[in-house]
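To whoever is on call:

I kicked off a structure prediction for a single chain this morning and the downstream step that reads the tokens threw a length-mismatch warning. I double-checked the sequence; it's 145 residues and nothing unusual in it as far as I can see. Pasting both halves so you can look.
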Amino acid sequence: MKIRQADIAEAVTVLARIKEFASPADEAALEARLKGREPLILVAEKDGQLVGVKIGYRLSETCFYSWLGGVAPEGRCSGVAQALLEAQEAWVAEQGYQELRVKSRNRFPAMLRLLLRNSYLIEHMEKKDGIEDYRLHFVKSLAIK
């Protein structure tokens, strides 16, 4: 498996295959969200096929936000999400950020487990329509201790 930086078009090809997302991926919407935010777009490539994506951007001089990511069905249960998370963390640390922030929902238990396994801490819970859509806000300090 290869993890590499990518463009929005490649990210959309992966996101379009992730049925759990409420609305289909749209290049224009992603471009608008990322414009001027110093984004990092990573993809996971396995046997020549894009199977995962992780997108984040600068929130402040010290904080990076891991905004959107997922693994296509054919890439699941093979370490793709973990590899993307590790690559993003390494890049974020190299850029000098001190913390990473992520939001997820109860409806994505695999993501919640991944974050907890990787020392992300729950900082806040935001109630939404139904309990499955409650947003859990995570933070991980990257500061050297």
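Update from on-call: the warning came from a stale cache, not from the record. Cleared it. Sanity check on the structure: Residues 80-94 form the longest helix (15 residues).
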